[in-house]
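Task: fold both queries, return tokens.
Query 1:
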Amino acid sequence: MIPNIDTKATATNAAAMLQNYHRMRAIARRPIVTGAGPLTGMPASAPEAGRTERHMVEAINARAFVDAATQAAQTVREVYGEEKYTILKCLYLGAPVTAENIMLRLGMSNTAYYHAKEDALVGFAEAFPVDWGELLVVSGGDRHESN
């Protein structure tokens, strides 16, 4: 971990970012259609062309977000271990699992779980690219500059 990190604020930021994962994954799964639509011989109308372009950009951005989040979670797995990765996967990346079920699965007490969850979220924040917004908060309120 990076020194002087406000772990609670950083974990909150990471959790807020991860709340978008399922929506972004759904958008990322949409096919990117580059055609002009039906072959009528007429060009696409400006609003229709703009809508198609917007959907393409949304899908490309969503794929980049999902890839970045998946890679950050894999970094947590490599650096912090399987337990922290499992917490991220169960809470944010896979089918939702309750905290109680995660604690049972990992054989953790309530306190140990919440500490591990915070550590997992901070690890995710450290690994997640700042292109999507800085998640790390340095103690004292200053933002952490990385890269």
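Query 1 returned. Query 2:
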Amino acid sequence: MEKADGVIYYCKLQDKILMNEKMLAKKLLKQGFWDFFHVDFQEEEVMRSADGKPYYGENKHLHFNISHCAGGAAVALSCHPVGVDAETMRKVNERTVRKCCGKEELAYVFAGTDTERNKNSMLTEEETRRFLGLWTLKESCVKMTGEGLRKPLDQVCFEPPVAAKTWKNKVINVEGKNCLGRHYLYQPGNLILAFSVQWEDKSAEPDFVWKEISC
């Protein structure tokens, strides 16, 4: 494949496929290592830093991250630190949203009305889609930095994606308010994907390829 700053492989898991999401993510990771790094991936080479972030043996410049959910999986690879997260639509209650979102994010999720309802009430389909977009962004960001869930997600905030600019191929470039790096949101079909990369060059946009893999 063409050489870029990185690549995100993703796959939508079909019901007829006899493969779970974790297996699918490993399959994508092996393919990505060979296609992008030209390295034969060996699972025993995967180590973890003190904060729990995985890295590949002595080749710490081979950055990768994986995510899987009910219905799909995604893998990001680059020579820069990356994070990726995948979600499909699921039930979300108001308590979860208020625990994870800042004030402006709450206004975005609830379409400008921040009237507190029953905390156990379920979000509408559109509210759920907006929240899961933010959730995946937050997850990809803390996976990129290695902070994981040690950092409260209401302290990892983003501009509402509705006001963000579309980059290419319907990928949305979202501004992180207190999270360094570049952040992108992409929703191919029933998958909600977010990708974060540590990128210090403010004058240039990183060139990442989003590649759907048939499974």
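Both queries returned. Flag for query 2: The radius of gyration is 17 Å.
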